[in-house]
Design a protein that fits this description.
Strand content: 15-25%
Number of strands: 5
Order of helices and strands: HEHHHEEEE
Largest sheet: 3 strands, antiparallel
Helix content: 25-40%
Strand order of the largest sheet: 1-2-3
């Protein structure tokens, strides 16, 4: 092949590539033509599948879990894990979690209610936790309790969540 024919061949391939990029056969996002519902799919996973699990502070997690065990150990589902945690040293924390817990992959799916077509899958979401402060209080002034708590504070805000989210009927937020 001559230099000229090689150049012509390369030019032809570039033109084909450019024309292919202009093609109208590109796949468009799937159009939703039916009612949909969201569902959640749970699948057993592995700690190695969790992106940051190798950099976690397992000792701090074990310490927090031991504190939780003060109240959850009475529940049958937690009794064994809490018992094992109490005898686990911080340097063995990672092995404790990996031997006693199973990570789960959670996906949110948008599915057509009539056809069962999966329109979208997402593995991101919002996870919440709750903080319960431990307060030592007294109805009477003492050296340790200089300000007694006698009743509900006047400025306590109570929000009825059902007003914004009917599914949360009977639940309130206080602060």
């Amino acid at each position: 092949m001559t230099k000229r024919s090689i150049a012509s061949l390369v030019s032809a391939l570039i033109c084909l590539a450019l024309l292919n990029g202009c093609s109208s056969n590109k796949q468009k996002p799937q159009e939703i033509t039916e009612p949909t519902e969201e569902s959640v799919r749970f699948e057993i996973s592995a700690f190695s599948d969790i992106p940051s699990s190798e950099q976690e502070d397992w000792a701090a997690a074990l310490s927090a879990f031991k504190i939780s065990c003060r109240s959850i150990y009475r529940k049958a589902a937690w009794a064994e894990a809490c018992s094992k945690a109490s005898g686990t040293d911080p340097q063995n924390a990672e092995a404790f979690f990996k031997n006693n817990f199973t990570p789960w992959k959670i996906e949110k799916r948008t599915i057509g209610t009539q056809t069962g077509t999966v329109y979208s899958v997402s593995d991101t979401g919002l996870m919440t936790g709750y903080y319960e402060p431990l307060l030592s209080v007294s109805k009477h002034r003492t050296e340790r309790h200089t300000t007694p708590i006698l009743s509900t504070p006047d400025d306590l805000i109570i929000v009825d969540l059902a007003e914004a989210y009917p599914k949360l009927k009977g639940m309130r937020l206080r602060g």
